Amino acid sequence: MEDEREDVQKKTFTKWVNAQFSKFGKQHIENLFSDLQDGRRLLDLLEGLTGQKLPKEKGSTRVHALNNVNKALRVLQNNNVDLVNIGSTDIVDGNHKLTLGLIWNIILHWQVKNVMKNIMAGLQQTNSEKILLSWVRQSTRNYPQVNVINFTTSWSDGLALNALIHSHRPDLFDWNSVVCQQSATQRLEHAFNIARYQLGIEKLLDPEDVATTYPDKKSILMYITSLFQVLPQQVSIEAIQEVEMLPRPPKVTKEEHFQLHHQMHYSQQITVSLAQGYERTSSPKPRFKSYAYTQAAYVTTSDPTRSPFPSQHLEAPEDKSFGSSLIESEVNLDRYQTALEEVLSWLLSAEDTLQAQGEISNDVEVVKEQFHTHEGYMMDLTAHQGRVGNILQLGSQLIGTGKLSEDEETEVQEQMNLLNSRWECLRVASMEKQSNLHRVLMDLQNQKLKELNDWLTKTEERTRKMEEEPLGPDLEDLKRQVQQHKVLQEDLEQEQVRVNSLTHMVVVVDESSGDHATAALEEQLKVLGDRWANICRWTEDRWVLLQDILLKWQRLTEEQCLFSAWLSEKEDAVNRIHTTGFKDQNEMLSSLQKLAILKADLEKKKQSMDKLYSLKQDLLSTLKNKSVTQKMEAWLENFAQCWDNLVQKLEKSTAQISQAVTTTQPSLTQTTVMETVTMVTTREQILIKHAQEELPPPPPQKKRQITVDSEIRKRLDVDITELHSWITRSEAVLQSPEFAIYRKEGNFSDLKEKVNVGYALIFIRVHILCCL
């Protein structure tokens, strides 16, 4: 049964490979095992699947075949295809089981997983087989004759395959006609034909391959995936949960047991091989140095007494055990061939690695990465050169024994020549690549250094001019200078990229020059670094200064605008107050009240005047610009003059009103009117004084003082006495015979006119007393 499944897989997988070749326009294969042995057809298949051009070895020896297969295996590994059991020798030797395993892994990746990756991601499932089985069961649940629980025995009678197609395309055939067919082979043939001619699916399986007691699971999976690709892909979570509840197989099949055992054995071998072959004991060499290979020419000779490969040139520390075990043991052709194949396989792989490095970039950072990558590659070559020497030495000894036939000796000689020439070509090419990388890298780095030096020179001149230019002389000029500084900061940020690339320079030195080769470069970098740091420091300090001055200047300008607007407003208010030609006493009192309020406002605004002086002094001390200082002094002097003019206008208006009152009402003297205005003003002064006492004292500055009578208590006492006297006189008037005559006649106009002025005066003074 095991051989039968292998035959089915061979036939099915061959059909699948040829179906792919038909898509790519490639020639078909006939024998899956023999046609893939040289690796060329395997690379053809992967070219079509990956869309990449994969070059092949031109030779036809076993070594070339191994190299082709190794290249194919690397492509599969790069595409995350699982290759646990498979090595290049297995395919070259035509191992049936592992060749089928290789093709199955390719099918599983490009046929199964690629087709189902979207639905797997949508359902958050990683088991493609479980999703495929859920899809089949969900599609065939309305067919009572069908119960699919696996991808083997559930398909033998042909009903499941027909039901799967009919569930999605009932228009293609009549279901009852399929059920009535007696033969499973007939039902399978019907399904394969419908799929081929109606759905475009290649006939990868034959009916007799499925109509057995235990059909091949992989072949069934592959074919059902092809159906899944062309039919509606709908799988519910319930269907997946239903599959998870299905009973598991009671035991492991014979084939699965064999594969599990083989996999464990192979994994163990891989682990041992890695531990023995790739463990490094030598300490790594310093970075940023070039490592020169020994300039040794490997020439083969038939003289057994002369060794053409001096051991001091060929041995690598980690390969001593490998070389000594070959040379010290009995030399035979089989051991030599095995060792030669391993070294040639590595050598061809190393050639591919060198080729894959690509062209040298013109970007300094990319070239650095290329340099370090090649440095590691060169160290790997150094580690393997001892193995190459040992194989050549072993071949010479083998020829020297005289036990080989003429044909065998010729073959060994050709093999040694091939190994020697390819190693020498690889060595020369790798050193040339290293030299070119170093040359390009140093050219790019020196170019960056020159560009940085030129940029620093220009920027230093630029900052010198900015430093010499005085700040201002007005706010708009300062804003322009701030914008210029922002442009400088942006230029520094862009230049930072070049500076960063030069902080990790790669310098190649040899043993003779040693550290002296880097001394001049280090000094150059130090000078450039100091110049860069000075520019950055100056830029930062100047930015802080500009921001401080800009903020202070804006505040001063804002206060100037507010103060100027206030002065204009108060000047207009004074001009609108009537000082002569009063219609009555109320109009006169209204003017007096307005003047008093303006005087109080003036007293309050003295703080703003002081604030302007303070802001001006703070700005000028930071700015240190004589022209700006003169401009500010002139501006504040103008404000002070406007202030004085306003005060004089208030005093003049007050005097004019007093003169008008004296003219119309002789009983009210000018002093009385002035005292009334002064009392209102004094009340506002007291409020201001209390507010000032709660604040910290302002710094001493240039001030303009306005004289105000501060003997409030004495004046209050006088006012209270006068008010009491007036009330007493008023009471006497109300009790006099004259007032009785007025009351009897009902005419109070004359009396009212006499009392009006006194009433107005008492109203003002009572208001002041309440506020005090």
TrEMBL record:
Q: Which CDD domains match?
A: CH_DMD_rpt1, CH_DMD_rpt2, SPEC
Recorded GO terms, molecular function?
actin binding
InterPro entries given in the database record: Actinin_actin-bd_CS (IPR001589), CH_dom (IPR001715), CH_dom_sf (IPR036872), Spectrin/alpha-actinin (IPR018159), Spectrin_repeat (IPR002017)
Q: Which GO terms describe its cellular component?
A: cytoplasm; organelle
SMART domains reported for this sequence = CH (SM00033), SPEC (SM00150)
> Which N-terminal stretch is annotated as signal sequence?
none
Keyword terms, alphabetized: Actin-binding, Coiled coil, Repeat
The segment(s) forming the Calponin-homology (CH) domain are 7-111, 126-232
- In this entry, which stretches build a coiled coil? 449-498
The keyword Coiled coil is assigned to this record = yes
Name it.
Dystrophin
Recorded source organism is: Piliocolobus tephrosceles
- Print the organism lineage: Eukaryota, Metazoa, Chordata, Craniata, Vertebrata
